[in-house]
What does this fold into?
Amino acid sequence: MRETIVSGMRPTGPLHLGHYFGVLKNWIELQKKERCYFFVADWHSLTTEYAQVDVIKKSVDDMVINWLAAGVDPERSVLFIQSEVPEHAELHLLFSMITPISWLERVPSYKELKQELKDKDLSTYGFLGYPLLQSADIAIYKATAVPVGQDQEAHIELTREIIRRFNYLYKKPIFPEPKTLLTEFPKIAGTDGRKMSKSYNNCIYLSDSEEEANKKLMKCITDPARMRREDPGNPDVCTIFSYHKLATSEATRRQIDADCRTAAIGCVDCKKILIKNLTEELAPFRERRKKVKKEEVVSLLHEGSKKAGLVARQTLKEAQSAMGLGFSV
It folds into this structure.
């Protein structure tokens, strides 16, 4: 039986290697065998970018162009914009009536993001409640599985708790409890060794030219304890070696690992091998990216939003009926 998959991305700036390897490559495999809904999470963007909405408008087209260039197929998946399907918001409202505030406050990313984004005022209900909106995004399509990184596992567990509470209170199994599908590369390091994030200014963007990306890789930190060429290194703490896991064959990785630990290879040579392999990996993507037109994106998102809306409206009717809403006049 096919799974129903729901996943989205926030349009808050250009996509980077973390999105490509951590999300898009996973989507491409999932769409081959499952029923997939992939959406532009513009309402979620407002939780942190409510004072800078221009970045949302500027990011949507470029983000979806990258989806298509990576191989996400609108013939196999439903691609849509969250705000074009208002049922997400209404189910979020219904869920908010039964969700204890303490459930939201204990989500780990709530405190982590507030710490990461210190320059923004995140003392809003929208920010506190975004995991609940995420639960509505998932439940409105009766998703049975959700692909996430490790930092999002708690969100899916919250979704399961809310669904269990809803089904128990209203005596109808309206929503299935979705399982978590951990991505192969849940967290991609940035050029400084921290999580790749535009907030840290440590990204290799998908829109970077080959030359720009290669310059960033050559400046990327390696083993901070390896001060000289003849010093043995430790690939376990090296950002460049973590990138080899994305684009270099296992046999070559094993050789690099051994050579690094014995100082048989230097960091510059290691970076050159990575650059060659990563360039080959991204070449088809970069070529397809040049060919995708903005008009194509607008059209497919419009059609996808209509398809998603048909499913969402039916689910919302079932939820309203279970809660005793929607009386005839």
In short: The chain has two domains: 4-188+295-322, 208-289. The CA atoms of residues 192 and 221 lie 6 Å apart.
